[in-house]
Amino acid sequence: MEKKTFYITTPIYYPSDKLHIGHCYTTVAADAMARFKRLTGYQVHFLTGTDEHGQKIERRALEAGKEPQEFVDEIVAWIKNLWKLLDISHDDFIRTTEKRHMQAVQKIFKKFYDQGDIYKAKYEGWYCTPCEAFWTERQLMEGKCPDCGRPVELVAEESYFFKMSKYVDRLVEHIETHPEFIQPVARKNEMINNFIKPGLEDLCVSRTTFKWGIPVPFDQDHVIYVWLDALSNYITALGYMSEDDSLLQTFWPANVQLIGKEIARFHTIYWPIFLMALGLELPEKVFGHGWLLLDDGKMSKSKGNVIDPIVLIERYSSDAIRYFLLREISFGADGHFSEEALVQRLNFDLANDLGNLLNRTLAMLKKYFGGRIPERGETGAEDEELLQAALALPQRLEQFMDELQLSSALAELWKFIGRANKYIDETAPWALKKAGQESRLQTVMYNLLESIRVISVLLLPFMPQTPKKIWQQLGIAEHKELHTWESLQTFGRLPAGVLTQPGEVLFPRLELTGEGGAPVRQATKKDKPQPAKQPQKTKEQKTKETETSGLISIDEFARVDLRVAEIKEAEKVEGADRLLKLIVDLGEEQRQVVAGIAQHYQPHELIGKRVLFVANLKPAKLRGIVSEGMLLAASDDEGNLTLVTTEAPIRAGSKVK
Ligand code: MSP
């Protein structure tokens, strides 16, 4: 049978500055898609690259006192390294300064000219250099660029123009008859209403006032407009207009062209028109995703280290960053980035949900079966739902991925992780052990391990490193046949008798107590020494730590303001199975806290309990709710948890020391 093909592209990045964490979204999302398709058996071609010409780059190079080529070479090397650190699995990386691209773009320009799509005239209008975009007087917003809000420059030069008007009707018809072409639908309406309906002007496609671009082959004073140059990368990388265009034959038209919403205009109006003029098919889908924003607005380099992807990867790992990006930006919408939000996601989803499932299961397996995967024994009423959910999961995820709902796909996977955690509570393996129900215990442990395997395989496209670590711990690293899509079609492939190898905690909990609010890992016994860069500590702190070899002084302990708190109100947090929102009384004041105890206590059971409470914890936001403080609770490896209460009644607010 012929292999199904899948061609996915990201925009090519401007190497004008180092990239920030927001930039990484497009590429990480495309990578997850590419990996998912490979997993499901497609022959995938995944393209990314850099957009190296234009006035913006020329100016930045000049400011840096470098030749443009030298300037971009350095940043491109940095970008390539970033993609390596983020486990981006592109099949090709195209640079617009490469010969293969430049030659083909010149041929494309010549073809347009020869067939009468391009004519020469005088251009007078506005230009936004950061966006490399032409604007008419009417399109400006308060005299500034309507896309980025920055000042525009008046340009008056002789230029070549592309006759957009010739193709606009065909474009509108295509958009109307192919609802999947521009996604999400909101972007389609925006394009039609804001740009096409008011009348699409012919596009200026050459410049003469600077040199850093691809020369017009028959008029060397002109360089080709950077967007015509850049957009062509999606086909020049496949060998269009070259001697070998076999990739083009195999992969064009693209299945998905992933872009940020601000460049939708170029990709859903100019790009399809250029393709029509070349006589090529249009891509199946152009998806304009939302932005990752900071609480105070758009990301920019001036926001410093917090948004430097390399710093973040070193601090949290590539898989953790990938997870956050893919989970935080939901279908077509914007998402928010802060280190607090990142740490919360990692603690809740990775450390608690996923990490605990693995750790609890392996710890119980060790205790009950010496760590060896048992045969399945007696089935029970709790099994059916888990098994059905596991079997349905691959197709459910595939559906979400085909709709580019990456965040929903992850949410679905996490729903199953929650299901598996609940299975532990429902079946209570410790009670089965106590009651001597060995055969049932075997089944429960087996089902949990197999569920973890299912999760690990489906996690592969999103977090490529984590599954390998899970397989290592499950003892199936060498069993390649258990890492496949096909292996998920039946439940029960995990071989009995294999010895598991519990190892390092995959996602240690982090807390936001480092200097300047930077998070640090909470050490656990099983934790390996932290190789990643820790937030800088003062000299004084370091000496203190060395002197006490990890022990804390009574003064340090006294910094924790421990109090007795009486629980006054408790309610479930909507959409979060584990959280309760509580109001506690500290004598002189009341506080709101969010506690991860919903699976252990019903809200009404808590009212009136006097618990131990950390009163001077930095406030944090959990699922959008402010939490000011923390209840103390004890928990064991078997999933039991109990709040720490006072032995005898004592006034709320009393100090604990
Ligand atoms: N060079 C053009 C694209 C040419 S494609 C033929 C360009 N480059 S870019 O470097 O500015 O942006 C690359 C990608 O990063 C775009 O998809 C853009 O939307 C994305 N992002 C930049 N900042 C972003 C966020 N803050 N959040 C999410 N994506 C963001 O545009």
Outline the structure in words:
The protein is α/β, with parallel strands linked by helices. Among the domains are: 338-488, Isoleucyl-tRNA Synthetase, Domain 1 (Orthogonal Bundle), CATH 1.10.730.10; 554-643, Nucleic acid-binding proteins (OB fold (Dihydrolipoamide Acetyltransferase, E2P)), CATH 2.40.50.140. It has 21 helices and 26 strands. It has a 6-stranded parallel sheet with strand order 3-2-1-12-13-7, sandwiched between helices. Strands 20-19-18-21-24 form a 5-stranded antiparallel sheet. A 4-stranded antiparallel sheet has the order 5-4-6-8, with helices on one face. The termini are far apart. Residues 11-14, 22-23, 25-26, 51, 230-231, 233, 259-260, 262-263, 291-292, 299 line the site of 5'-O-[(L-methionyl)-sulphamoyl]adenosine (MSP).
* Termini Cα gap: 72 Å
The CATH architecture assignment of one domain turns out to be Orthogonal Bundle
Q: What compounds are bound to the protein?
A: 5'-O-[(L-methionyl)-sulphamoyl]adenosine
Structure summary, number of beta strands? 26
**Superfamily at the CATH H level of one domain?**
Isoleucyl-tRNA Synthetase, Domain 1
Biggest sheet strand order reads: 3-2-1-12-13-7
Q: Could you name the CATH topology of one domain? A: Isoleucyl-tRNA Synthetase, Domain 1
Strand proportion, as a percent range, falls in 15-25%
Largest sheet: 6 strands, parallel
Choose one word for the global shape.
Answer: globular
Secondary structure category? alpha/beta
Total of DSSP H or I helical runs spanning 4+ residues = 21
- The pLDDT mean sits at 91
Note poorly predicted spans: 523-549
CATH domain class of one domain:
Mainly Alpha
Fraction of residues in helix:
40-55%
Radius of gyration: 29 Å
